[in-house]
């Protein structure tokens, strides 16, 4: 870890820069002017040399999609390789902040600089907002030294980008790392196919929680819609309706077609261990790959990065089993 000499502030939109309208809060451009005004008002505030760029148009993060992930990836890489920045602060809406942090963690593997995402629960112009505390708190964390990779700063805490999730819709401490057990095997080396330079394409993905009464016809309709990868949120340690032969056959059919099936736990403190129960073994035998302790955000972002790189289903499954950035293996000194 090292201190930063040239920071890129990248603004994508979100509540932190929103302004009021007759329809409610909407994204607004030109956040750099407000940042300059705040710095002028806080003469004691130190900022490293910084540049500013914003995605156009800025968006409400509720509208986030894969194309936006790719645009943010491109802007971050340009900041490092073209502008010479050695750190990036990405301002982002909170609704999908954890999804973007996880996705970028996989899209920027090997970049070698710290990227910190933050946002706010209230717009920066609102009295009592958490916007400036989060923004300057993230800058201060970077100034003290942050390891290369993607992180999320919120409510006074620096979180792992592929482990964080949003737990609250009003509290300033809305984000946390879920205490999920992780037993994945760390990848020995990063393959060229997953390096940040690898161009990605949009991928058809889906997330589905198991629930009592889920019908095989519903699952088959989803799997038959052209999805290339499915994150199936299982019960507990990876169980599901093992007595529904038709549902299990729908999974087998999809896997034979080349759809990647990844199972994670619905439980905030859960992880997948298919061998614990026969009901879990049935899902595994039907083609579901265990996602260990990955969060929904990490599972979706990792599937996108792998399949979007053009990897085959078998290649994707291989790397899903390998920990790439701390998403499914405990890291020294990291919170669980």
From TrEMBL:
Ranges where the Asparaginase/glutaminase C-terminal domain occurs: 206-319
Keywords of the record: Hydrolase
Leading EC class: hydrolase
Domain of life, source organism: Bacteria
List of residues binding substrate: 61, 94-95
Sequence ranges assigned to domain L-asparaginase N-terminal in this UniProt record: 7-180
UniProt-listed Enzyme Commission number(s): 3.5.1.1
CDD domains on file: L-asparaginase_I (cd08963)
Cellular component, GO annotation: cytosol
InterPro entries from the UniProt entry: Asp/glu_Ase-like_sf, Asparaginase/glutaminase-like, Asparaginase/glutaminase_AS2, Asparaginase_C, L-asparaginase_C, L-asparaginase_I, L-asparaginase_N, L-asparaginase_N_sf
Active site: 15, 94
Gene Ontology BP, a term: aspartate family amino acid metabolic process
Gene3D superfamilies: 3.40.50.40, L-asparaginase, N-terminal domain
Any Pfam family matching the protein: Asparaginase
Keyword tRNA processing assigned: no
Molecular function terms from GO: asparaginase activity
Name the UniProt record assigns to this protein: asparaginase
Organism from which the protein derives: Azotobacter chroococcum NCIMB 8003
Gene: ansA
